[in-house]
Design brief:
single chain; Jelly Rolls; Arc Repressor Mutant, subunit A; 2 domains; 9 helices
Length: about 230
């Protein structure tokens, strides 16, 4: 299980980013460590728990279950990601289920401890208000973007979002899909057939190159950004 140094690094990439060193140090003891085995469940959709999670290592899947029993992957959680923030704030049911695709380590903040920390630190309240304001602005931007995007634009945007750190500025960077094309199609709200056509078109136009299973190399970064609406 990772140590406190990694917890502080994870906090710096979470809604608590921007906290002073002193505040981060005061928050850290409220987090407890948890190991989730492959196939294990962090929580189920509809469960009330008020817990916030930071992913230290492993890989998890957030999904929703449809009325007919099928599940739709909403996103994949990797080290450095976080989840459960909204239920931490409002103590309402989790809107998604989260299960581990591989053995995973997480840090967990329970709501009772969070409320206690919040009541003792005005700095924390201001910090989180700023975070939520930024999230709201981002939602407005995404609504406009999704409304005008077709399958090719969505796929291009997804490939760019999966670039490794430092890869966004250069051609030749390689993207590794962390899940199957079927799950990617569900995440992007396109059909599997349209996803395949979009990837084939991007390859045909030499914007990307399919190098191996679930691996794509960016060949024309500028053009891919234009299609994604990122440049």
């Amino acid at each position: 299980m990772p140590g406190s140094d990694q917890l502080l690094a994870l906090l710096a990439k979470s809604p608590f980013a921007g906290a002073s060193e002193g505040l981060a140090q005061r928050l850290a003891p409220f987090f407890v460590t948890q190991r989730i085995d492959k196939g294990g469940v962090a929580f189920l959709e509809g469960e009330v728990g008020g817990r916030f999670y930071l992913v230290a290592d492993g890989r998890l899947k957030a999904f929703r279950t449809l009325a007919d029993g099928r599940s739709i992957t909403v996103f994949i959680l990797m080290p450095g990601d976080f989840f459960g923030f909204i239920p931490l704030l409002d103590n309402r049911p989790f809107p998604l289920s989260v299960t581990a695709l591989a053995a995973s380590s997480v840090y967990v903040l329970n709501r009772d401890d969070f409320v206690r920390a919040l009541s003792d630190n005005a700095e924390l309240s201001v910090l989180l208000l700023g975070y939520m304001a930024n999230r709201l602005r981002g939602c407005f931007d995404q609504v406009g973007q999704i409304g005008r995007q077709g399958a090719v634009s969505r796929v291009a945007h997804a490939l760019l979002s999966l670039l490794p750190p430092g890869g966004a500025a250069r051609a030749g960077a390689e993207v590794v899909l962390p899940f199957s094309q079927t799950e990617l199609a569900q995440t992007l709200h396109v059909t599997a057939e349209n996803l395949s056509r979009a990837l084939a078109r991007l390859c045909r136009e030499e914007l990307i190159e399919h190098t191996a299973r679930r691996r794509y190399r960016i060949r024309d970064m500028a053009a891919l950004c234009r299609i994604a609406g990122a440049g």
